[in-house]
Automatic annotation (TrEMBL):
Lineage: Bacteria, Bacillati, Actinomycetota, Actinomycetes, Streptosporangiales
Database matches in Gene3D superfamilies: Dimeric alpha+beta barrel (3.30.70.1060)
Segments forming domain YCII-related: 1-105
InterPro entries: Dimeric_a/b-barrel (IPR011008), YCII (IPR005545)
Protein name: YCII-related domain-containing protein
Family listed: Belongs to the YciI family.
Amino acid sequence: MKYMMFVCSDTEPDTDQRNLPDIDAWVAENDGRGRRLDGSAFAPESSATTVRVREGELILTDGPFAETKEVIVGFDLLECADLDEAIEVARTHPMARLGRLELRPLAVDGQ
């Protein structure tokens, strides 16, 4: 099953920075095991453009539209047997301690 894992900042990261996992090691391990299909960090949120259409009119806004202190800073596309495996993969990601990770299964046949 495929899961999109959104990598997000958090206003309350773990204060215990000892033994923080290395992101390069995490990527290498999960790429090697075939669990990480793709992923990337995003450019700073200040480079974002929000696109909306209202009443047929195109509305562009510089920067992210979400009115929150937390922002999506990257993503990983995972291939896991089930949600339990996806949670285990997310648990070992450095941002599980520094930020937050949202796992969302990809829709199958539009569902």
